[in-house]
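Lecture notes, unit on protein representations.

Consider one protein chain, 246 amino acids long.
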Amino acid sequence: MTAALEAHALEFRYPDGRMALDGVELVVDRGHRVALLGPNGAGKTTLALHLNGILRGSGSVVIGGLELNDENLAEIRRRVGLVFQDANDQLFMPTVAEDVAFGPANLGIDGDLLDRRVEEALGRVDAMALAPRPPHHLSGGEKRSAAIATALAMEPQVLVLDEPTSGLDPQGRRELAETLRTLDVTMLVITHDLPFALALCEKSVIMDDGRVVAEGPTKEVLDNENLLRRHRLEMPFGFRAGSSPG
């Protein structure tokens, strides 16, 4: 079976000379939810921005068997839904419904089909009530749901979420994990929230210094205290991966 997402020998250097990605190898199978962990500066967000061509380095990115190149860029961006850390970066229209409609409308979808796309996307994150509301009036959790709906409206094959629990309280994090578990889409979840990764993702990948340095079942990765310590990661005090994530 073709993998949902592949990155091979991916390298990227910023203009200041810093090597952000140094031969990254990553494969995410269809239908899986994978946590991408690592310290600040490890290259996680830079990798995410390569997956739909916002940044372009050397090496290859393949989404559902289709290689990212100039010819396929528009289709790759439809296949990869990217949810930014700051939901305000994705919510800029007068209402949530208009934000969710924005992407499909730019593909030429309109009328009843566009309305259905919006309703289905908002319904998948249990956010239909947000449709008429201005995004700047929403709570942090509501903004996050609306931002995810804007990505889902494009019917992506892969959903990439960058620090989705940022700014959420414990209840908001639990509710988000419950919502994401209901979505039938491959996910790559960039997070420093290790209990959230345990609650949501069956597999975890650790990046450091622009490279993938470890991967495996999330519980095994998070139970390895020496591994976490080497890469400046730690579970909350008193929390073990073998305990209930709540």
